[in-house]
Specification:
The protein has 381 residues and is α+β, with helices and mostly antiparallel strands. It is built from 8 helices and 20 strands.
Amino acid sequence: MNARILLVTLISFATFAQSQTIDGTINVDGQQRSHKLYLPSNFTPNMPLVLNLHGYTSNAFQQVFYSGMTNVAEENDFVVVFPNGTTDQYGVTFWNSEIAGEDVDDLGYLIALIDSMIVNYQVDADRVYMCGMSNGGFMSYYSACEMTDKIAAIASVTGTMNNVIYDNCNPTRSIPVLEIHGTQDSTVPYLGLENSGSFQTMMATEDVVDFWVNHNNCTESQIVEMEDLSITDFSTVTHFSYTGGDNGASVELYRVNEGGHTWPGSIIPLPGVVTNHDINASEVIWDFFNQYDIDGLLGVEDILQETNFSISPNPMNTSAVVNSLFTIDEYIIYDLQGKVVRKELVNDSQFKIQIGILQAGLYILEVSGENGNLKQQLVVQ
């Protein structure tokens, strides 16, 4: 693709502190394409970049508010761009993820958009991620198959792969993949759908997960029934994780039991459709992305951050006390393969960790709260 890239930036509808939401356009092969760009208030060069793709009939403006990802970007210091698709033969906004009868080059557009972000905002080229809602999820999978030199990891919310993508996907490396999908999704059914018009055959969610588990050569699995934090949403979440893949690449599925065609955690309800509030999809997606760069699972030295909480003693024998300057909502302990070995709600600035079933070794303790997500090394003797 010979793309002439021209970035035009206009300060748009929101400025909070030094954060900016910017309307931008790029010219790709003679076609003007638009997007919305969010720069966090602590923006500096070399930040990670997330592309967040809207669903069928939607647009970038709606996806900004529906996903709520700008709040997560502000708390965790990453750049997020919301691209706009074009209109299909029916006049509806869409992404050409191998849609029958369409020829717009959305892969070329997204490649050009990534390149423009690298040139104009010096984002970290090794930490570019893509996620999307519904048709945007289809496009994320398509990009994982075709843009392995650009994308470090992908996530799909209520999306899947159609049969054309599925049958022809041959990535040149392992790709970390996250899927969030409701079992009562009537638009992109959890169990798949044959002959679904221009979208062709939609593959079953678990078949797609199995595809990426096999591609990444994942060797370990775990199933966790997550706490039902919101009993009024009439849904629960089961978390499937598959780890130990090539270069540490994992595959995760958050199955939203009784959930509909929605973005979990969204504050915008969709009438007649169950939106789960036990998880926040944008937070889950960032926590997943934050483990990887283009070469795979980040090493301990890459993911440890300057923190304002302490662990004592560390190394620990039977227990350790965590003290923080802010209230911690929950903590997660990961092993060095990125597998979650413990996760608990806290809601306190001081709490005790018991060794429990943890074997001797090196772990990562991640705490989340009003200061975002912070990590430290945890040693068990």
